[in-house]
Amino acid sequence: MSSGEVGIQSRIGSIYSGILTGCAVIAAALIASMAVLITTQVVLRYAFGIVILWVNDYIEYTLLASTLFGSAYLLKQKGHVEIDFFTARLRPAARRVFTVLAHAIGTFVCAAFWYSSSLTTIDHYRRGVLVIKSVAFPKYIVLLPIVVGFALLTVQFAILLLQEVRTSGSAPSTSDAGFDL
Q1: What does the pLDDT look like over 45-69, one tens digit per residue?
Q2: Per the CB 3.0–4.6 Å rule, which of 27, 48, 102, 157 could disulfide with 107?
Q3: What is d(CA 148, CA 44) in angstroms, rounded to the nearest whole number?
């Protein structure tokens, strides 16, 4: 690979990392705003008998958005929950097979969710579908974090898959894929 190609890859990687970090910051800000609004709602309700109707709707949609905006960053940082009861007992080659398989399944599933949510979001935008709760607003706004989140998750799972496949320079071997009991 030429130095120009490495420079472009490095720049794309930096931009992608910046996008993930930006989405994680947005997720954190959304979570902080939920904490402030829930506290405000509780104080106003119990101290003054005042209820802000839209707070519950905001919390509902913010939970969705913060989860999806932060998930790809979390996956990149390997901060996700990993249940390794089974894979910890595998020999390295077998563990690698399962890791490659998990990343491939993750890529495929997230790509399917991205595709489906993209079609749904575009459809809702074109038809002007509204969410009518305490406040009416376009439904595609609620769906956009799903599209963005699954797009980033698809890319991140694909990156992890490529990294795992490249670590040994070849496809995983199943010759010694057994349990260490």
Answers
A1: 999 999 999 999 999 999 999 999 9
A2: 157
A3: 35
Residue-wise DSSP of 93-140: HHHHHHHHHHHHHHHHHHHHHHHHHHHHHHHHHHHT-EEESSSEEEHH
pLDDT at 123 over 80: yes
CA pair distance 48, 157, nearest whole angstrom? 49
- Distance, in Å, from the CA atom of 73 to the CA atom of 149, rounded to the nearest integer, reads 10
Which band of pLDDT confidence, cut at 50, 70 and 90, is reported for residue 160? very high
How many angstroms separate the CA atoms of 54 and 44, rounded?
14
Domain segments of the chain: what residues?
A: 3-166
Question: pTM of this prediction?
Answer: 0.85
Q: Specify burial of residue 77 (Cβ count, 10 A radius: 0-12, 13-18, 19+).
A: exposed
- pLDDT of 169: 57
